[in-house]
Specification:
Blueprint lengths: L10 E5 L5 H11 L4 E10 L20 E6 L13 E3 H8 L7 E8 L2 H4 L4 E9 L3 E4 L2 E5 L6 E5 L6 E11 L5 E10 L5 H13 L5 E10 L1 E6 L11 H7 L1 E6 L2 E8 L10 E6 L6 E6 L6 E8 L2 E5 L12
Parallel strand pairs: 3-19
Antiparallel strand pairs: 1-19, 2-11, 3-10, 4-10, 5-6, 5-10, 6-7, 6-8, 8-9, 11-18, 12-15, 12-18, 13-14, 13-17, 15-16, 16-17
Helix pairs in contact: 1-4
Length: 322
């Protein structure tokens, strides 16, 4: 199946509030202590993310950092719309206003189901260099027919499609300063990303702040889901959705990619979305750690300058966004 014509898709764009990294550092250093015993937030030079333990396609996160949301859950639920296939490279180029520069695209979405003839989770991890070189470290995760095990596999350089929905950080991939967030021993009820997001939301209120990047689950385990094959019957409630999803405890180390925003910005946005992959065969949609006493997180983030909403569903709903 061909991806949709990117030039024909509706793109809506809004600027985000862009506080300095130092300001965000101070907000999180104070706020995250309500959810974790040990909190350390710094502004640092971005490590080379192509190297272990990150295994990303590009070195850095900087250079016109833009947050992109593709499609949405209403294209999956209550019934799937299989026509919603997006070309991540072409969407990213348009989101960056076709500057002709190299870029990276990192994040979470539904994987390219035509590639494996099955619904799957996508962990998008791409670098594009003009005039047309794509380096993919992307992965997909799919569940077995008996729904008991998960297979994680690398997506080839030639496959750049995202299905149905996606949340991506798109940037030039340059080195530079980033926000480093390290937390250990969770004492509150919120996951790592929700902890960060709600701290920012409490401080900035109606000003929309967004972050994108990578975080490592360094110790412990995480509750993650992998979707089942597309449902042939309508899924209309959270209860029906949770019956259809498959939940697993997956062990560290896990490499998580995605974005968060503090408000919907009148664009029907998903507030947070991160997917993980690993070098040991585990991956999926991150929910929360299941080992709060021993969990360790380390994240590297940039502040998004803009939010770009692509192909927003005309008919929407609010379930299935956790």
């Amino acid at each position: 199946m061909a991806s949709l014509d990117t030039s024909a898709l509706l793109f809506e764009e809004k600027p985000l509030h862009t506080p300095s990294l130092g300001e965000v550092r101070d907000v999180l250093a104070a706020g995250l202590k309500s959810n974790f015993t040990t909190v350390n937030v710094e502004v640092v030079e971005c490590p080379d993310l192509t190297k272990a333990p990150f295994h990303l396609a590009g070195e850095g996160l900087n250079g016109s950092p833009t947050l992109v949301e593709l499609g949405g859950v209403p294209y999956l639920l209550p019934l799937v719309d299989r026509s919603r296939l997006y070309d991540v490279i072409k969407v990213s180029q348009r989101a960056l206003h076709d500057t002709g520069k190299a870029f990276v695209a990192y994040g979470a979405g539904a994987g390219p189901f035509p590639l494996v003839s099955s619904n799957c989770e996508g962990i998008f991890n791409l670098r594009f260099s003009p005039p047309g070189t794509v380096v993919s470290e992307s992965h997909l995760a799919k569940v077995s027919l008996d729904r008991k095990t998960v297979t994680v596999q690398k997506i080839p350089n030639t496959e750049t499609r995202c299905a149905l929905l996606g949340n991506l950080l798109v940037a030039e991939g340059k080195p530079g300063q980033v926000l480093k967030v390290s937390c250990k021993k969770r004492t509150g009820q919120k996951d790592f990303i929700a902890s960060i997001r709600t701290c920012l939301e409490a401080h900035y209120g109606e000003q929309t702040v967004g972050l994108g990047g990578v975080f490592l689950l360094q110790a412990g385990k995480a509750k993650q889901h992998v979707m089942s094959p597309f449902s042939t019957t309508s899924i209309n409630t959270e209860e029906e959705l949770n019956e259809w999803l498959n939940f697993f405890d997956m062990p560290a180390p896990l490499i998580n990619l995605g974005i968060l925003v503090t408000t919907e910005c009148d664009l029907d946005l998903r507030l947070q979305h991160f997917h993980s992959f690993s070098t040991h065969g585990h991956g999926g949609h991150y929910h929360i750690d299941t080992t709060p006493d021993i969990v360790e997180y380390e994240g590297y983030f940039v502040v998004g300058e803009r939010i770009v909403r692509v192909d927003k569903p005309l008919h929407t709903h609010k379930f299935g966004r956790d």
